[in-house]
């Protein structure tokens, strides 16, 4: 019985919190305001050209009320398209740096491996040479 009561309380609390904190209502109420006021709400985006404030989660918006040139998201500095370009460039530079570091490390390991193999080969050649000298000396002594 206590479990059902607890389940009902949790369900009602979840329902009330989702109804009360719906970001769609908060964002649409902030239309025809300035950018800072709209973006003060979480998950809201702002269109500069028509002063519309709307919910933007990134993955489930069908058609935004404006294009990426006029859209402001999380900051009023720059527009959405500029931020996409900046993020893409930064990610590209970071990936390029990672690739360069990996290539340098691999190259250094390869050179180290080659030098190690050369040293091993030299010691092996030296041993073979010493054995041959011993055999020659033994053959001459007979």
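-> sequence recovered:
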């Amino acid at each position: 019985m206590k479990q059902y009561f607890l389940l009902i309380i949790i369900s009602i609390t979840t329902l009330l919190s989702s109804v009360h904190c719906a970001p769609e209502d908060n964002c649409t109420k902030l239309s025809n305001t300035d950018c800072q006021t709209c973006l003060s709400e979480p998950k809201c985006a702002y269109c500069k050209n028509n002063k519309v404030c709307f919910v933007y989660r990134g993955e489930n918006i069908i058609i935004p009320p404006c294009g990426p040139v006029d859209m402001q998201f999380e900051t009023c500095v720059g527009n959405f398209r500029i931020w996409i370009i900046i993020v893409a460039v930064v990610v590209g530079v970071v990936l390029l740096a990672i690739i360069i570091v990996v290539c340098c490390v691999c190259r250094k390991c390869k050179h180290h491996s080659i030098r190690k193999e050369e040293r091993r080969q030299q010691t092996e050649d030296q041993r073979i040479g010493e054995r041959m000298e011993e055999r020659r000396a033994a053959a001459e002594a007979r």
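The two ends are 106 Å apart (CA to CA).
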